């Protein structure tokens, strides 16, 4: 029991030292364990700079040490506030990490798609067949980036671009309509089929190392 009281008083000295930014006071107080040596002006400093709750807590720890359970009751309100703040902080970090991971995957898919299309174009001397997986990828690339509004003006919707690439990465079974620029070719395909065509194109053209 005496050791517990000593620990509670020592905690009061630590809090007082932290509040007054005086580390030298800690060593002295912790070795002496004599509450009569507490500097009154330091407690006044705490009272003038911090909340009444903190001042009352330090004073209570030094002059009338409570039990551990009583101390937990005294700290319970603030402890739950800190816990709630910690959880919010963790959720924020998790969201930021998820966004970074998602951005990395989108970039990987875009590089994968671009390399398959343009490397194949070089292999066939710039002459593209209007059939097969390569042409499907070309139409899909147009579907992503070559957007026009109702008046026929070109624009780019970054949300649409990211959504398409993420669905491609996930092999989403959702079907989309792919139309050539001259509107003579219309294909109904899914992100799953396009992903399979992309993998097939890479497997038959070259070996690629993806991070």
Please characterize this protein's 3D structure.
The strands form two sheets. The chain has a two-stranded antiparallel sheet. Strands 3-4 form a two-stranded antiparallel sheet. It folds into two domains: 2-66, no CATH class; 93-205, Helix Hairpins (Orthogonal Bundle), CATH 1.10.287. It has 211 residues and is mainly alpha-helical. 70% of the residues lie in helices and 7% in strands. The protein has eight helices and four strands.
- Overall pLDDT level: 79
- How do the helices and strands follow one another from N- to C-terminus? HHHHHHEEHEEH
Give the % helix: over 70%
Uncertain segments of ≥5 residues (pLDDT<50)?
A: 30-38, 124-128, 207-211
Specify the biggest β-sheet. 2 strands, antiparallel
Secondary structure: number of strands = 4
How would you classify the helix and strand content by structural class? mainly alpha
In short:
With 211 residues, the chain is mostly helical. Helices cover 70% and strands 7% of the residues. It has two domains: 2-66, no CATH class; 93-205, Helix Hairpins, CATH 1.10.287.3700.
């Amino acid at each position: 029991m005496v050791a517990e009281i000593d620990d509670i008083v020592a905690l009061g000295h630590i809090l007082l030292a932290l509040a007054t930014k005086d580390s030298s006071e800690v060593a002295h107080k912790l070795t002496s364990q004599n509450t009569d040596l507490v500097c009154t002006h330091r407690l006044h400093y705490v009272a003038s700079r911090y909340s009444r709750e903190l001042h009352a807590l330090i004073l209570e720890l030094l002059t009338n040490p409570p039990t551990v359970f009583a101390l937990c009751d005294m700290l319970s309100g603030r402890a739950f506030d800190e816990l709630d703040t910690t959880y919010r902080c963790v959720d924020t970090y998790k969201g930021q990490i998820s966004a970074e991971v998602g951005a990395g995957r989108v970039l990987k898919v875009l590089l994968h798609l671009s390399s398959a299309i343009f490397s194949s174009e070089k292999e066939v001397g710039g002459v593209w067949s209007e059939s097969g997986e390569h042409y499907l990828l070309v139409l899909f690339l147009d579907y992503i980036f070559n957007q026009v509004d109702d008046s026929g003006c070109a624009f780019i919707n970054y949300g649409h671009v990211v959504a398409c690439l993420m669905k491609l990465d996930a092999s989403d079974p959702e079907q989309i309509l792919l139309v050539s620029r001259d509107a003579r070719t219309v294909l109904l395909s899914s992100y799953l089929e396009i992903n399979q065509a992309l993998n097939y194109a890479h497997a038959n053209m070259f070996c690629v190392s993806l991070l």
